[in-house]
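re: ur question from yesterday

yeah so i grabbed the chain u mentioned. its 523 aa long if i counted rite. heres the sequnce exactly as i have it in my notes:
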Amino acid sequence: MPFVRLKLRLIANGLRGRPGRVALFVSGVLLSGIFAVAGYAIFAVPGVLGDEQAAATLLPLGGSALVLGWVVLPLVFFGVDESLDPARFALFPLRRRTLITGLFVAALVGLPAVATLVATAGTVNTAGQLGGAAAALAQVAGIVAGLLLCVAVSRAVTSAFATGLRSRRSRDLAVILLAVTAALLGPLQLAVLAGLERADWAAFGTVADIAGWTPLGAPWTVGLDVAAGRPWAVPLKLLIVIAAIAGLLWWWGATLEKAMLGTAGSGRGGAATDTRSPVGRLLFGRLPATRFGALVGREVRYWLRETRRRASLITFTVVGLFLPVSISMSGGSPGPMTLFVGALAAIALANQFGYEGSAYAANMTAGVPGRTEIHSRAAAHALFTVPLLVVVAVVVALVGGRPESIAAQFGGLVAAYGVGLGVVLPISVLAAYSLPETTSPFAVSSGGGVAKGLLTLGAMAGTVVVSAPLLVVGFFLGDVWLWIGLPAGVAYGCAAYLIGSGLAGDTLDRRMPEVLAAVTAGR
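ran it thru and got these structure tokens back, copy pasting raw so excuse formatting
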């Protein structure tokens, strides 16, 4: 179809002459392959073991989680591919049905769809082991319907929310709700895993049976129905899934016309300054009247106004509080999770130049030194992040029943945050990538989802490795760490930040044209 050829051409053009993006794409293929193989193995285990009860529990619940993951996980880690944004077709005389069909089929062409299809093929193996060829054939129809459902729900929900996010008032509320919901998905999964030891497996079986008759779980259980002697359930479940897909496509079509307006109708009005807000009254009048102060003030305004930046702050707030608190309440040590929280705090700057796109040309034309640029951006981000780290340290210490550890907890968080900045800032210069010109906080350009995911995982892994020695020292020092944890953590984090920011600043001085080209590619 023309839409599929157009998407493939956009992907190919985005890779042509860009070795870095090619490497990221290849890495994405490898990661997708790992996910596909792991998913296939998980779904195939009940069939290999010949355990019908395990299959009846795992397939509907795992399939339901997969469908929900198509909605939430890309928004948090990988973004939503907007290479075929409906707004791009606003001036073309295309019928709504043609446009929806083309965009839907094009969405099926990509690594996530292929990986999902391969992963869920494990359910075919399980159905075949338990019920023979007839069950396997029925399950093939089920996984195809399930893949169509995943794509339909992802595109419909994203399109509807992106349309609502075009006005400032709706963005303010919707971004908070979406980011909080997305951020809670991982923590809630950890809470579920922590409670499995005390779980009532009979209750899980009941929940799985119910999920198997919902659109979320129905497509993954049709083969099991044939194996269990219930072939009459197959057409009913497929009908449930088809009806759900039809409803989602209708919803998508209902919001498509507004989505095709793009950013044309999104107002850019509002006050010229933030001096009337509490943050403005507290901060902007106190910044130094220097180039550095002006850059910090500009960045602070961006963090207050730009939808994608606010979404990242909200996500960090929810995850940063929930994860260590849940571990403390379960009696575990929050130390390792402290490294994760500190690393997560710095991730928002992994593609800091991509937020601006062509606007970065103004700084480049003005000849802003690389170190001044880097320090101003990090300072503005720290104005929002450090207070959140204080809150995390206080809450974790109080929930864990150790208020005397507040200072040491904060020292560990600052150390991990400083190390995270030291790792992320050079990455933001060397691996910058463009973001689409859209008001959606979750959109990425074609191929950008792989880049975003790899940068996030790589930066967090590097931060944890570099910060781990400090955690080991704190473990062996015991109570002594309560006294020296704060100054040691601050010194460690500042040293890591100075090294990383110096490297990033010097690199930026040499690569300003390359950074500008990278963040404006495809716009």
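noticed a couple things. Residues 262-277 have pLDDT under 50 and may be disordered. also Strands lie at 80-81, 443-444.
anyway ttyl
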